[in-house]
Predict the 3D structure of the following.
Amino acid sequence: MNYVAPTTERPVSIIHGDVRDVLKTLPDSTFQCAITSPPYWGVRDYGFEGQIGAEPDLDDYIAGLVDVFSEVRRVLKEDGTFWLNIGNTYTSGGRKWRQEDSKNKGRAMTYRPPTPKGLKKKDLIGVAWMLAMACQREGWYLRNDIIWHKPNGQPESVRDRLTMTHEYLFLMTKAERYSFNQQAIQEPAVNGNGRKNKRTVWEINTEPFPDAHFAVFPQALVRPCILAGSREHDLVLDPFFGTGTVGVVAQELGRRCVGVEMKDEFVRMAEARTSSGQRALIPAEP
């Protein structure tokens, strides 16, 4: 596949294919910033054989994503930043499938992964931190763990633990020194006099997206990442593009974006959401 970079006239390019194959075709040191939210382990069924997130072994899931993000590091510029959104999950307690419910149609699953070795029924799996630490060992600089607090988080009918309303956003870099625009994301000072550095707890509502039957990556979560991690006209990458939120925000802020997405339905949604920017659809080679 011949890589075609987006332009200011056509700022969003969608590459339709498996990220594990597509990233290998992209040139070194191309992107200033990468932002993504990969499939979470054992949470959703996307209907693909060999789909990321459906590995029976948790270690295989972690290793697979580390390999993907190694390619992200290769295509990232030396002073680039990588923003990774990932949440923790619980063991399935031995259940083999999960039905949908009226409040969350995307909840239905034809599989449930077995309880990982060394864990127990009802254990909280620290997937987010397991992945972050594995990326750190593989060579990334781990710079921040940001708490995404969701005030409108999904209700849970649990009686013996707290309802989970947060996820993690990890800031990683390729090198010790990197481009970071602190001023672009500063917040009003408490006393209203001046500005202060942005803190590591971000209170952001989820965004419902009825066409996909689940909440999508919120634009308000993506915006600070792009503002701090890139400049106007820079190239931004989302290797798990989904319905295209990173592309929407990138073109809003005058950046260019490449998204990689495997699911046909999500590609169509992303095309529709970014069409005002005259996106280019790049088919992956068979």
Q: What stands out?
A: The longest helix spans residues 58-75. The two ends are 9 Å apart (CA to CA). The chain has a mean pLDDT of 88. Residues 191 and 197 are 14 Å apart (CA to CA).
